[in-house]
What we know:
Layout: H1 3-6, H2 14-35, H3 40-66, H4 78-89
Helix pairs in contact: 2-3
Amino acid sequence: MAADEHHDDHGNTVSAWFLTVSWIVAWTVAAAAIILGGDLITWTVIGLGASVVLAVIAGVMKKVGLGRKEPRPVPPTREEWEASRKKVAA
């Protein structure tokens, strides 16, 4: 199994945007707390814990229909691309 086949792609969907924005917020809060004098280890653990919880929530959102509804598009192989270019040029 190739690495690409194992990757769980959320795509440009509600679940993907939720995960992106929520991680940005979680790590910004953790970084701000550290900068303002909070304990580095404590806030790093909080950031990691929040990341895991938010990833699980995004996964559930995907399962209930807020994720990709069709398979991820696969780019053509080099041979397919070259054949299509020759066809267009002819």
